[in-house]
Amino acid sequence: MSNNYPEKLDRICELMGELGHEIPGTMGAFSHLHEVSAEDSVLDGKVKELIALGIAITIRCEGCITFHVHDAIQAGASHEEITETIGVAILMGGGPSVVYGCEALEALSQFEAVPA
Known about the structure:
CATH architecture: Up-down Bundle
Structural class: mainly alpha
CATH class: Mainly Alpha
CATH topology: AhpD-like
Low-confidence stretches: none
Order of helices and strands: HHHHHH
Number of domains: 1
CATH superfamily: AhpD-like
Strand content: under 5%
Largest sheet: none
Helix content: over 70%
Mean pLDDT: 95
Radius of gyration: 14 Å
């Protein structure tokens, strides 16, 4: 794995900011959707981030994996909860999810190494 996930997260955030200037209506609506969907309700934010991570692995979205590993950690998910989520994604996505699960594991390792 040759990605630097903390740097990748910073770059995606930077580019999303640029998109916000180019297409403010779309990005504003997306931002609001993300905010409302991620807030605590019947499911807390940590559970929602783990679900989003599992989906990201299954649909093979590397940028989404980057975000949701980071956000799951920020929401209080443990290493074990994240690796178990990777396992559920593999169940649903098969072999390709193994490869993207490895990406998620590498992202987890890198984000855990960044001082809080």
